[in-house]
Amino acid sequence: MRNIRLTTEADEAGGTRALLDVGAGNTLLQMQIIINSILHNIRAPSGASGPVNKLSMTWLTNETGSESWWRTLQQQGLPLIEPAGRGECGVTFFWRDPQGSEATSSTRRVWINITGVTDHHQRAAPRSLSRIPGTDVWFWRTQLPASWRGSYCLMPDSDPADFEGEPDMTTLRAWWREKFPTAQADALNPQRGWAGGRGMHVSPLHLPDAPDQRVWQAVDSGRAPALPLQHHIWHSARLGNRRSVWIYATGDAQPTERPLALLLDGQFWANSMPIAWPLQQLTDAGELPPAVYVMIDIIDREHRSRELPCNPDFWLALQEELLPQLQGWAPHRVSAAETLVSGQSFGGLSSVYAVLNWPHHFGGAISLSGSFWWPERGQPNGRLIQQLQQGEYRLAPSRIYLEAGRREQLIFKANQQLQQDLSAAGHQVVFHPVDGGHDALCWRGGLLNGLKAMWQHLL
């Protein structure tokens, strides 16, 4: 049985026209399916690299939606990734409706939230997958740089209404917040998903030329060994609360010579994106020194928003209460020069704030997508940047590793400015841009790269 093949090409007016290659054995209904798919998929989202200029849909046959068809599709690996030329890839996402076709299912939309591409940071209408009529098959297609990496989730919706009104950021954020409770990871994606910062379950997508993350392969496939973490409770008198602290040490031959790394959002690195096995692999390979890693819980989002953005009480409590206990839990070298703090988003802001204010305790910071716009959302130059520009924070030179995604425009711009201001103030700064968004898949690579860069002299 012949497939239907669809491609597009530019017309004389600069628009797009569809070219259909319909085998003689195909039906008028299938032709209508293709035409409908054009209406939903012919334009790329604002975060994509450009228009979807070629749609190869060889998977669309008279068997589409059958059990054998689904098995064959999953054997190819989902989402489907294919070269699109000029350093880009076409990506096709699928969702299988558990209620069957439109005749039996209440699902009328399946919104797709791709970090940095179709998410709430984009000034564009939300995107939904399209259903193949008469089947349980939903699909959506986009085109991205082959170096892209990021997470995504799907949101089935019984409401047939599309997003209404102008796509201003306030309205879009409110619309997405209403949909977040329906978010689910991609059940067809064989790689391990996780719960994101808002509690949404997401799935990973790595395009062929994305930066190397081979040390994460065992974690992604569920084959990583379960390495034991120490677990302690930090009771803070200054903060008036208690929280979990996890510790992992990658070697014990000379325990008092081990450098120390404090990882904010510790619950994420201990559980959601378990980092112990990647750290151990890099240590065994001689790319990181044996070290002590301390993962500090945030308690909850409310505490995180209050304690991490430039809060002196949090860092004084850590110095007065937590650091003295750490030496008993996991001996390490007590040296500011070999003590790093790391965090993402508010945690990135907090890490840089710590090394600038207490260089006698913390000699280096790793900031991943640091929120240097704080405290006024929408303004690229936040308080810390303004203080640097006014001549503050010249106490002692610190070493700082910054990473931000090109698809998180405000944060990227703020990090570029911060790099300039830190360098002008005499600090040693490395800024590493990545092709991604405000995304844990980028942060996990950035954290390891930052550790290697900051501790290279210890090898």
Automatic annotation (TrEMBL):
<keyword id="KW-0963">Cytoplasm</keyword>
<dbReference type="GO" id="GO:0006826">
    <property type="term" value="P:iron ion transport"/>
</dbReference>
<dbReference type="InterPro" id="IPR000801">
    <property type="entry name" value="Esterase-like"/>
</dbReference>
<dbReference type="InterPro" id="IPR021764">
    <property type="entry name" value="Enterochelin_esterase_N"/>
</dbReference>
<feature type="domain" description="Enterochelin esterase N-terminal">
    <location>
        <begin position="91"/>
        <end position="216"/>
    </location>
</feature>
<protein>
    <submittedName>
        <fullName>Enterobactin esterase Fes</fullName>
    </submittedName>
</protein>
<dbReference type="GO" id="GO:0008849">
    <property type="term" value="F:enterochelin esterase activity"/>
</dbReference>
<comment type="similarity">
    <text>Belongs to the Fes family.</text>
</comment>
<dbReference type="InterPro" id="IPR029058">
    <property type="entry name" value="AB_hydrolase_fold"/>
</dbReference>
<dbReference type="InterPro" id="IPR013783">
    <property type="entry name" value="Ig-like_fold"/>
</dbReference>
<dbReference type="InterPro" id="IPR050583">
    <property type="entry name" value="Mycobacterial_A85_antigen"/>
</dbReference>
<keyword id="KW-0378">Hydrolase</keyword>
<dbReference type="Pfam" id="PF11806">
    <property type="entry name" value="Enterochelin_N"/>
</dbReference>
<dbReference type="GO" id="GO:0005737">
    <property type="term" value="C:cytoplasm"/>
</dbReference>
<dbReference type="GO" id="GO:0005506">
    <property type="term" value="F:iron ion binding"/>
</dbReference>
<dbReference type="Pfam" id="PF00756">
    <property type="entry name" value="Esterase"/>
</dbReference>
<dbReference type="InterPro" id="IPR014756">
    <property type="entry name" value="Ig_E-set"/>
</dbReference>
